[in-house]
Protein: Jg8421 protein
Organism: Pararge aegeria aegeria
Amino acid sequence: MTTSSRSEEALENLQKNPYYEKYAERIATLQKTSPEEFLRKVEEQQKNKNIESKKKFASVDTRQFSSVLNPKGELKNDVTAEEKKLSDIFKVDLVKDKDATEVQIIWEEYHKNKEVLSATIPKDVYSQIQQNMKQYPTFLFPLPRSEGYEYIMCQSYGHAVHFTPLLAYQVHHENAPECLTMVHYTELSDKGIVLMRGDYDKAASPLTTRQFSSVLNPKGELKNDVTAEEKKLSDIFKVDLVKDKDATEVQIIWEEYHKNKEVLSATIPKDVYSQIQQNMKQYPTFLFPLPRSEGYEYIMCQSYGHAVHFTPLLAYQVHHENAPECLTMVHYTELSDKGIVLMRGDYDKNVLTGKEAQCLANQFQMYYNGKDENKYKLLQSFTKTPDSFKHVDLITELENIQLI
């Protein structure tokens, strides 16, 4: 491919970027004066983008997000947990002549310095357990975390029990990675015992406060009867002081007022907000991906009146209408006669950082202002044709918001 055709292709890709118009003049100048430098920058940016994408979906080596975006890897061999034999991990011949108590001591000693679980279960107890495993093969357990609980799903097959983070299962279904696999070995049941061994994923341990969104903590009682939809600008701001100010002056005062507060704030042109409001009514529910240290967490937004409520998707699946918001944005229209609408966003510091809250607010504006064709199609698809909606397209859109 010639430099000219490569340059044309690169420019065509750049024009799809929502920020292209803002930088079009600088890009055109660089393309004209130094086409090789232009191509180098574009290719370098694309390379960095690919590297970042790989990082976000690489194997998780931290313990922060239960590897929910990493599907189950290829098995090292064709032997599944259900087919495992005691002889695969233990020299059965050495305990043939031992009684149950001696086997238990040997089994415990054998695993003492290994990072695995082990147990010796009386045969009659395991018979009851096995019966219930067959009758109730799927169940949920709450796992205490630092700021709430994480749900872990267990599934029983044969003599094996597989534990999977619920969020991972919701993403990957049968390909979800297990965090713990327990296998019961019945080869020594003639001695009246069943041996159990559990192998767990050392990478799937406690999440920090901001990494799991306290999903088992329902919404607390409201301090008063005023909801976000009913809030007035006068509740948080002295409107009388800006009655005689123009839009620019109000914007400066609004920004200054919130400068040292841990909240989001914005001044939106009235015509822009009119389009946003129209889309809020037409598409009241949507999803946004929030970048985390080792993947993405999905945050659901719901619009009511002039307010937008953001809730971690998992929290909503647990609590529904009682799910706690991590961010609430309220649009105040009292000064719309000046051609502006004021926005304030309050976020839960236990769930979001300021940058994460801003990321959600920015995505909301980009999708709901209707200016980006791809984003608007996704907004429509989520509500009108949910069967064709692909959540991974949201991540693609987010990753494409990059500047040269």
The first strand starts at residue 117 and ends at 122. The chain has a mean pLDDT of 80. The two ends are 22 Å apart (CA to CA). The chain has three domains: 3-56, 81-200, 217-399.
